[in-house]
Amino acid sequence: MAKDDRDILELLRFEFDFIEMGGYGRSVKTPWKATSPFRDSLTCINYAIPEKAHPCSECHLIDFVPPEFRSEELPCHFIPLNEAGETVLGLEFEDNQAKLEEALKAWMRAKIKELETRQLASKTEGAP
User: What is the pTM of this model?
Assistant: First the structure.
């Protein structure tokens, strides 16, 4: 279970906006270096830390990773993004940035909607 104290709904909204603004394009500072979805954004609990200070098991995204992939170097790259089971890792191998970003955005839209629905339901259950 994740130990990240940040709100997952807000993180996913931020990540979605980040991609919409071209967040995973090549950096102006390091154009030779590819960027990595989730890892190279504020969503990652190890963002901007060269060494992995926090285990991925403490990240909210770990809850979306199938159990058999949770010990991988970047478990978030094994999150199934659609019904076909495409993952960040697999889409990176295809070398089609637009397809990868569209799959990520579709997955995030679905998760954001699911979390908003769950949040609304829990608020209405507690309402007098």
Answer: 0.82
